[in-house]
Every structure is written in C-alpha cells, then in structure tokens.
Write a structure and sequence with these properties.
The chain has 2 domains: about 100 residues, Recoverin, domain 1 (Orthogonal Bundle); about 90 residues, EF-hand (Recoverin, domain 1). The protein is mainly alpha-helical. About 50% of the residues lie in helices and about 5% in strands.
C-alpha cells in the first residue's frame, strides 16, 4: 500500500512547486494526494513508485471520458518522459500542467507528440489513417469504410501539409494550429473538452463516407479541477 506521510507530502510539494508554472502550492498538494490515490490501482510490479499504464488509462477514461485505446496509450507515453513504463510524481505534475493549463505552444508540442505514433518526428499518412479510423463510425449502407477514411486523410493533408511532402512535420502542424486552433486535436481527443473533428475542415460539408463520433462524455478540465482543488475550508 502506497501512502505519503505529511512530512513527505510537504517535501514533495515544496520541490515540485519550484518547477511548476501553472499550479500553485495548494493545487500541487492536491494533485500529489490524487497521485497516491491512483497508486492503489497500480497492479504491475515495479522497482520505483509510479502509476502504471492500466491505472493511468483508467484515470483518463473515468475522469475525462477518453475511450480511444491508441490515444490513451500515447498520452501515457507523453507523460512518461523517461520511458520507464510508469508515471512518477514529477512526471504526473509536469504532465498535468500542460494537459490542464498549458498554453497553445505547450499544448501544440504535446498533441504532436501524442499523434506521432512511432516517434520519428512526423505524422505519416498511415498514422493519420489509424487515428482517424477510430473517429469514424461505419454507416449501415457503407461497403468499404476505409475509403471514407482515406478521403479524410486526403482532406487533412490538403489542409495541413504546407510543404507538400505527404506527411506532417511539427512545422506543418504548428502552422496549421496557429491558423486554426481547432486543428489542435485533429486526430483525436487527447485533451479535456475535445472538439468534434467533423467541424474542423468544413462545417457545411458532410464528411465523406462516415460520421465523426461525438465524444460528448469528455469531461471538462474545469469540472476536474473543481473536484480536485476543493477549498480546504469547504472540506
């Protein structure tokens, strides 16, 4: 059983507060307490203290309504900076800084990292296909749903591939997001309060051969913060 003594909690809060740009000391203490609560759900044996992949994915699903397995795995990898298979308390705080309160530049870098599935510095046509496939619902009369996804990939590249090399570099992605902020989550919801991809390209046109899945269950970061950062006088 993982527990944090008051002394250890204060020490962790003090050390983490110095590096945090977006949370105050009280908020960091609340997030550290939540971290230790989530450790109770960690089932994998490990040599160091951290939230494992399954517990982290469960947190994303139950707290923010995320359902895409591929995206949740990539969010986990974005938090797990040292790639040791767990999210330690420092990674937890720094990751949530961007996830909940990051500015546009920080969120752009984070989302690109999530969408760059193989970590080669580009979002390829194949990666777009796999991510968008999870965002399309097959229509009853549709014989080949993959054709609709390929059409959507073509639309995406036409809109975002500024150097016309058939893939998205970070520069392509960043420029596109600066021009249209809704493109930040073009390949699936990886932040709280995700927007519908259907509206990103042309809200007046029907997306070819498919309908975007509505992620209406995605929870607002404000709801999460209201629950976690309760005023101590209200407790």
């Amino acid at each position: 059983m993982y527990t944090a003594t008051r002394k250890r909690l204060q020490k962790l809060t003090d050390s983490t507060s110095k590096a945090s740009k977006h949370f105050n000391r009280y908020e960091i203490e609340c997030l550290i307490k939540l971290f230790y609560t989530l450790l109770e759900e960690t089932t994998e044996k490990q040599s160091s203290i951290g939230i494992d992949r399954n517990a982290f994915r469960n947190f994303l699903h139950t707290t923010f309504g995320m359902t895409d397995d591929m995206i949740m795995d990539r969010v986990f990898r974005a938090f797990d900076k040292d790639n040791d298979g767990i999210v330690n308390v420092t990674e937890w705080i720094s990751g949530l800084c961007i996830f909940l309160r990051g500015n546009l530049e920080e969120r752009t870098k984070y989302c690109f990292e999530v969408y760059d599935l193989n970590g080669d510095g580009f979002i390829s046509r194949e990666e777009m296909f796999h991510m968008l496939k999870n965002s399309l619902l097959k229509q009853p009369s549709e014989e080949d749903p993959d054709e609709g996804i390929k059409d959507l990939v073509d639309i995406t590249l036409k809109k975002m591939d500024h150097d016309h090399d058939g893939k998205l570099s970070f520069a392509d992605y960043e420029t596109s997001v600066q021009e249209e902020a809704l493109l930040l989550e073009a390949f699936g919801p990886c932040l709280p309060d995700a927007k519908l991809l259907k509206k990103l390209f042309n809200p007046k046109k029907k997306v070819p051969k498919g309908t975007m899945r509505h992620h209406s269950g995605t929870r607002s970061h404000l709801e999460f913060e209201a629950q976690v950062f309760k005023d101590p006088h209200d407790l």
